[in-house]
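Example 3.2
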Amino acid sequence: MQTPLTLAELNTKVKSTLEEQLEPSYWVIAEIGSMQVAQRGHAYLELVEKQDEQITAKLRANIWAYTYRVVSGWFQSVTGSPLQAGLKVLVHGVVTYHEVYGLS
């Protein structure tokens, strides 16, 4: 049996592995499963992929306030609709892993 790790040690290994193996950023097609805009202006999304109405993949995403103001204003001016749950979108983002908060 290998030496057991603490949960923090395991999460640190996961974070290090992801940082070493992933590209700096990715373009991803996903549906906005849910979206909340906080009082301070940050947007918190759950991105999902569905097949036959079943969720096959899910990931949390954050858009910081300044970026959200710019992106949401641009999106609405171009499409006539606000960013909202149910829309399929193309997003460009950075994958991060935090030992306490997980993958986003």
